């Protein structure tokens, strides 16, 4: 009993925090403490995850009789249980919790005029819990429930500032598309249920059953393919991979920027985590099929993302397309994981092509999250200070906010892939995973895309640092002159941005430990 | 005890200190400048002088100088076979076998000394030139220094690439913030042009890594970025290797820059602040030349043999075109910029000849040009500053108004044109010897480049230095600050020393030149 409580401690802390937030809201006491409570709760949960990193794989809720028994193993001999708590879970939980803490910090000023603070923060925590359950889930049905738990609160968060027309529009769009993707996933799962239950299995939706059923290539039917396609489409929406990307840009632009951060850094990672758990690791035998699909999606996603980003005039739209392009880079690593994943890499110990690729994908998801957190938080600050989200209004920003401009420059250079920042290292790993998997052409397309992306990132840097502030903007009142003069950056943003920048530089200079952890996480669940 | 930790066998290594000192000093420089405006320059100067001092120490260790304790002497055994000495090898990303490895040999040692020297000079030259946002400026210069030094010191392709790219960002800001009227355009143009070229180079680096995996007996299985392992591999001249060569060559000749990829250079030079131009011409171009020499001699000699004609053609076209276009330039900085294109063409010719003389000549040109062109840019900047114009037709008779500057301008122009006894002469001599041995016709054509070079310098001198007093320049005043004197004096002194004692440089790279020729 105590064992299971310790293993589930990250969840329990979050649930407790959420309840406290709601209670404060309900009884209308000390509501201004809601943000710090959320931050502390998120941080404690993060700490408990980091402390529990030990390579153990625990299966929970497996046995109906001894429901609370925990089976902990290193060798994957007990492949049953609703939950798997392994290093893969821990890696993604760390990403989600980092995102939660950052978004909570940067929301604390953003939302301070809002009346229902407790609801806002509890929804944020609830979504994080959903995403964490998703990466721990070992059963398709649980995956679906977690998927909804990770999505529904975000829909309401996106619609939170309902007085703004564009927010309502984008939230509605987000919800409709999201509901559709859930339908796709559910339909895929129901097809799989049909396939596996006919084999007489007791737990037809457990991942092991599914994997076993899909592994037998001789009994392949069109149903198998159809089921996979539906899952792909469903998860593809969350990842914002082309051709399922169209919603992302409008939604990123319309939602409050703090939530955009959550979407770009958190929800996207959830889509990738789901597809990695089910497809990349589960269905290794079908690697040739989905590997090719991923490779094509990767090329489409990054090329379209980068090309369209070139012509954007709104910074949030530009960052949204850059986010799509980065989803494309991550897909390169996933495509690489398909190609002979078990092949050893000569010269490296304990790393196979598959685990290297998955580790590269995980690593890039992490660095992308941090970079986007910094970039979007800067966007929040600027939208308050300048009153605009147009790229041209960033002209001469250096004169007003030198530190903010410094942070944005670091974030953009890192997104561009300039060494020695985090974005360079993680992109390098991704290109390497493609090389290890003999996908040289994919690596070359990745490098070319990386070169294209320079144009739109450097334009923002040039505007911010080199250009003078546009006089006509001030005259035409696009820029709020009063706020421009008096706006002081709140401590919360400064903290979020500062920590983010330090992370970007540190990950870039000493990536070893984190990458090793990513490799452990990959190894850990590849073998399970 | 401390010397053991810093410079001993298993210590931090003098090269690590050289590499890290400037970048670690960048932030303190900025802070000091914020606290007391005007202190940033002295702190930056101090740091760059210490870095130069460490570079000299490294050189003394490299030369096994008698002043040093014998425990600090470098082991030069590896040099004869193209290896490195004073090697630092620290695991960086262990899980994929990437190392932070630095080293020096006959090719990189002179360039490291040159970098240390030119950065001190550039900071001195900034004293009277830069008055705006000094803290950030000096921090950028120090950041740039780490990038340049890292490029020359790296013995691992990833470190090399990191340092190579690290140069871009500070240079972008130096041009973009402290530059001339069209600075933004120039900065963006510079950044995009060279960054895209670096991407192509990255493809080449990835290619060489892939290819190295075919030689497990050297690499111990898997690909490698280590210069030390790559030089032991005998890459043939098959199609894939030739493609790698072309990709790397593209990355390098954009940086050199050679015709037809030179268009960023005059723009960047004209718009950059004077110290920025000095670093750009003195060191950034040398990164391209260094890369070319390292690649051709150490990793892909057979591919160079295949493509020697291409490198030679690019070199000779750059030489002739640069000289020809320089004749027509109005802006003095632009003239020096095109002369750089021409002189760097000689580096390409020297490498293409594939002989000891050619290699030594190319390297000599790198160092000589690295000293002379900053001098010329400094003079052009000073004239522009005090006469308010750099247009040659308007500068009649500066000898009367600015005698010292004019005198040094004459000296530097002659040095750049290759007057015997000055630094520029030896490199041209050596390269021409090599060309005569290789393809005499090329030498014959190249002579015209030299004639043009002499012609545009003489014509420029005739129009600017000589002539009557010019009432339009009555406001012009000569150099007066100690920093300006020291820049002119030190650069001229080294031009002279290198011209009179070429053996100083040639001795430093005997092993490297011999190794270079043995590769073909």
Provide a concise account of the structure shown.
Chain A has 528 residues and is an all-alpha fold. Chain A has helices spanning 2-7, 9-27, 34-51, 87-110, 117-136, 140-158, 165-197, 207-215, 222-239, 246-254, 257-280, 287-309, 315-338, 353-385, 397-400, 402-416, 422-436, 440-465, 471-475, 481-486, 491-509, 512-526, and strands spanning 57-60, 70-73, 83-85.
Order of helices and strands of chain B: HHHEEHHHHHHHHHHHHHHHHHHHH
- How much of the sequence lies in strands of chain B comes to under 5%
- Summed up, the helix count of chain A is 22
Helix content of chain A: over 70%
Number of strands of chain B: 2
Number of helical elements of chain B: 23
Global Rg of chain A: 22 Å
**How many E-type strands of chain A?**
3
Characterization of the model:
The complex is a heterodimer of chains A (about 525) and B (about 525). Chain A has about 525 residues and is mainly α. Chain A has one domain (about 5-475, about 480-525). Chain A has 22 helices and three strands. Chain A has helices at about 1-5, 10-25, 35-50, 85-110, 115-135, 140-160, 165-195, 205-215, 220-240, 245-255, 255-280, 285-310, 315-340, 355-385, 395-400, 400-415, 420-435, 440-465, 470-475, 480-485, 490-510, 510-525, and strands at about 55-60, 70-75, 85. Chain A has a three-stranded antiparallel beta sheet. By secondary structure, chain B is mainly alpha-helical. Chain B is about 70% helix and about 5% strand. Chain B has 23 helices and two strands. Chain B has helices spanning about 1-5, 15-35, 40-60, 110-125, 135-155, 155-165, 170-180, 185-210, 215-220, 225-230, 240-255, 265-270, 275-300, 300-325, 330-350, 355-385, 400, 405-415, 425-440, 440-465, 480-500, 505-510, 510-520; strands at about 85-95, 100-105. A two-stranded antiparallel sheet of chain B has the order 1-2. In chain B, strand 1 (about 85-95) and strand 2 (about 100-105) form a beta hairpin. The radius of gyration of chain B is 22 Å and the shape is globular. Classes of the chains: A mainly alpha (about 525), B mainly alpha (about 525). The interface between A and B is large, with 37 and 40 residues.
């Amino acid at each position: 009993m105590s064992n299971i409580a310790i293993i589930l401690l990250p969840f329990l802390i979050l649930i407790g925090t959420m309840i406290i937030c709601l209670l404060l809201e309900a009884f209308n006491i000390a509501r201004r403490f809601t943000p710090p409570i959320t931050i502390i709760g998120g941080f404690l949960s993060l700490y408990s995850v980091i402390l529990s990193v030990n390579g153990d794989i625990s299966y929970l809720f497996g046995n109906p009789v001894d429901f609370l028994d925990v089976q902990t193993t290193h060798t994957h001999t007990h492949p049953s249980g609703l939950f798997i708590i392994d290093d893969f879970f821990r890696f993604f939980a760390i990403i989600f919790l980092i995102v939660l803490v950052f978004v909570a910090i940067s929301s604390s000023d953003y939302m301070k005029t809002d009346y229902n603070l407790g609801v806002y923060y509890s929804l944020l925590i609830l979504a994080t819990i959903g995403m964490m359950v998703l990466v721990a889930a070992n059963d398709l049905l649980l995956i679906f429930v977690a998927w909804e738990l990770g999505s529904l609160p975000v829909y309401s968060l996106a619609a939170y500032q309902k007085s703004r027309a564009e927010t309502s529009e984008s939230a509605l769009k987000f919800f409709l598309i999201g509901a559709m993707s859930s339908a796709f996933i559910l339909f895929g799962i129901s097809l799989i249920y049909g396939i596996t239950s006919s084999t007489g299995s007791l737990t037809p939706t457990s991942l092991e059953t599914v994997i076993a059923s899909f592994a037998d290539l001789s009994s392949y039917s069109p149903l198998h393919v159809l089921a996979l396609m539906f899952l792909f489409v469903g998860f593809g929406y969350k990842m914002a991979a082309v051709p399922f990307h169209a919603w992302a840009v409008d939604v990123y632009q319309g939602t409050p920027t703090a939530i955009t951060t959550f979407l770009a850094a958190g929800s996207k990672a959830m889509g990738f985590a789901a597809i990695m758990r089910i497809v990349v690791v589960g269905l290794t035998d079908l690697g040739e099929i989905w590997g090719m699909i991923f490779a094509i999606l990767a090329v489409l996603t990054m090329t379209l993302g980068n090309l369209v980003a070139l012509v954007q005039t709104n910074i949030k739209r530009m960052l949204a397309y850059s986010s799509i392009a980065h989803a494309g880079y991550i897909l390169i690593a996933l495509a690489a994981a398909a190609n002979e994943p078990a092949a050893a890499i000569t010269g490296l110990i304990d790393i196979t092509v598959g685990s290297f690729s998955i580790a590269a994908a995980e690593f890039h998801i992490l660095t992308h999250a941090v970079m986007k957190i910094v970039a979007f938080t800067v966007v929040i600050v600027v939208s308050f200070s300048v009153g605009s989200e147009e790229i041209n209004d960033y002209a001469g920003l250096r004169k007003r906010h030198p530190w903010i401009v410094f942070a944005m420059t670091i974030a953009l250079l890192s997104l561009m892939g300039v060494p020695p920042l985090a974005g360079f290292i993680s992109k390098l790993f991704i290109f390497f995973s493609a090389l290890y998997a003999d996908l040289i052409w994919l690596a070359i397309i990745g490098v070319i895309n990386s070169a294209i992306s320079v144009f739109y990132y450097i334009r923002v840097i040039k505007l911010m640092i080199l250009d003078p502030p546009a006089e006509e903007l001030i005259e035409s009142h696009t820029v709020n002159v009063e706020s421009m003069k008096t706006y002081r950056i709140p401590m919360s943003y400064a903290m979020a941005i500062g920590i983010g920048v330090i992370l970007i530089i540190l990950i870039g200079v000493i990536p070893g430990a984190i990458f090793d952890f990513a490799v452990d996480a990959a190894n850990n669940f590849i073998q399970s | 005890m401390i010397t053991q930790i810093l410079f001993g066998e298993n210590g931090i290594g003098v090269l690590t200190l050289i590499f890290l000192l400037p970048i670690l000093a960048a932030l303190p420089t900025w802070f000091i400048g914020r606290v007391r405006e005007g202190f940033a320059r002295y702190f930056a100067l101090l740091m760059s002088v210490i870095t130069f001092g460490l570079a000299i120490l490294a050189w003394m260790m490299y030369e096994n100088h008698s002043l040093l304790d014998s425990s600090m002497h470098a082991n030069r055994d590896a040099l004869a076979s193209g290896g490195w000495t004073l090697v630092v090898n620290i695991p960086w990303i262990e899980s994929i076998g990437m190392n932070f490895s630095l080293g020096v040999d006959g090719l990189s040692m002179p360039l490291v000394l040159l970098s240390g020297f030119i950065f001190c000079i550039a900071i001195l030259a900034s004293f009277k030139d830069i008055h705006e946002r000094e803290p950030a400026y000096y921090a950028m210069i120090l950041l740039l220094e780490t990038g340049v030094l890292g490029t020359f010191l790296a013995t691992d392709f990833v470190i090399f690439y990191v340092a190579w790219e690290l140069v871009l960002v500070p240079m972008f800001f130096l041009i973009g913030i402290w530059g001339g009227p069209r600075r933004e355009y120039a900065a963006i143009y510079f950044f995009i042009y060279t960054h895209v070229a670096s991407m192509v180079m990255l493809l080449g680096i990835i290619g060489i890594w892939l290819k190295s995996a075919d030689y497990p007996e050297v690499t111990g299985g898997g690909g490698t970025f280590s210069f030390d392992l790559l030089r032991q591999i005998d890459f043939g001249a098959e199609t894939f290797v030739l493609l790698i060569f072309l990709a790397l060559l593209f990355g390098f000749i954009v940086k050199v820059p050679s015709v037809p990829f030179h268009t960023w250079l005059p723009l960047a030079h004209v718009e950059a602040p004077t110290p920025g131009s000095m670093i750009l011409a003195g060191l950034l171009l040398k990164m391209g030349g260094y890369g070319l020499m390292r690649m051709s001699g150490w990793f892909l000699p057979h591919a160079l043999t295949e493509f020697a004609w291409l490198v030679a053609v690019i070199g000779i076209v750059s030489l002739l075109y640069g000289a020809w276009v320089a004749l027509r330039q109005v802006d003095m900085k632009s003239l020096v910029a095109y002369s750089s294109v021409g002189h760097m063409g000689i580096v390409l010719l020297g490498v293409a000849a594939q002989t000891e003389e050619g290699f030594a000549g190319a390297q000599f040109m790198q160092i000589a040009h690295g000293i002379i062109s900053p001098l010329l840019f400094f003079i052009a900047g000073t004239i522009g500053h005090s006469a308010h114009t750099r247009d040659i037709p308007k500068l009649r008779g500066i000898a009367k108004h600015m005698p010292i500057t004019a005198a040094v301008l004459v000296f530097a122009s002659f040095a750049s044109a290759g007057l015997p006894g000055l630094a520029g002469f030896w490199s041209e001599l050596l390269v021409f010897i090599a060309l005569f041995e290789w393809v005499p016709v090329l030498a014959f054509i190249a002579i015209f480049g030299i004639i043009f070079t002499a012609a545009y310098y003489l014509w420029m001198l005739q129009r600017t230095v000589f002539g009557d007093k010019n009432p339009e320049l009555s406001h012009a005043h000569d150099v007066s600050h100690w920093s300006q004197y020291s820049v002119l004096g030190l650069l001229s002194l080294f031009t002279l020393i290198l011209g009179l004692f070429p053996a100083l440089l040639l001795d430093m790279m005997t092993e490297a030149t011999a190794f270079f020729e043995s590769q073909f």
